[in-house]
Amino acid sequence: MRYLALFVFFLLSPSLIFAEGINKLLDQANSGDPKAQYAVGARYAYGLGVKGDLLKASEWYRKSAEQGYDLAQYFLGTMYANGLGVKHDNREALKWFSKSAEQGLADAQYFLGKMYGDGLGVKQENHLAMKWYKEAANQGHLHAKNILARKYSGEWEAEERMILSVDWLYKVGSSFLSDGDKETALICVIAIYKIAPNHKLADKLFYEIKPLWQNELVLND
């Protein structure tokens, strides 16, 4: 989880983190600016312009998170989930992932789904895992889409699979197919058949996949 968090950090906030010198950021952070507090926390977390210090990182993330900044809430959650700079505590991780997820951050929604699905810091609740995976997947989160496709192919109970609409599974399968991932698109076909046998959208997606398999066989001959 730590490496994914590092990737998201660089992806989502380079302008804020690198644009300001540490002294200016500290002035802004000490004046109560939640984005600056988050940026100072990130500097300490990854040793950017300062000596790395996970304890200080967690303290600044907390200041920002308590003011409702979604990225700080997410990264504070990752610190609790991994025991980085704070004592490992899945309940605290769940708390901060929840706050961030409710604001719409896809990575937080994905990890919140994972915690409910794996029973980390909370009673295992597959229907809540499904809910949050779907929220993340609707924003294009690749890991969430992949997990949903595989879960709905048979790992979860039929009643829980019914929560996802056939239309949504078709859209997810088409998305994987457009990315060239025939195998996962086929999993979506299987999932649709299990939810609604002989559904026309499953047939449609299957016949969109079929020529690609045939072309691959021709190329391999």
Give the strand content: under 5%
Pattern of helices and strands:
HHHHHHHHHHHHHH
What oligomeric state is this? single chain
Query: Strand tally, please?
Result: 0
Number of helical regions: 14
| Estimated helix fraction | over 70%
| Structural class estimated from helices and strands | mainly alpha
User: What is the C-alpha radius of gyration, as a whole number of Å?
Assistant: 21 Å
What is the overall pLDDT average?
80
| Biggest β-sheet strands, sense, barrel | none
Low-confidence stretches: 1-11, 216-221
Q: What sort of overall outline do the alpha carbons produce when their principal axes are compared? A: elongated
What's the end-to-end separation, in Å?
A: 42 Å
Overview of the structural elements:
This protein is mainly alpha-helical and 221 residues long. It has a domain at 142-221. The chain has helices at residues 2-12, 14-19, 22-30, 34-46, 54-65, 70-82, 90-102, 106-118, 126-137, 142-155, 158-161, 166-178, 182-195, 200-220. Helix 3 packs across helix 4 and helix 5 crosses helix 6 (70-82). The longest helix is centred in the C-terminal third of the chain and has 21 residues, at 200-220. It is elongated. The termini are far apart.
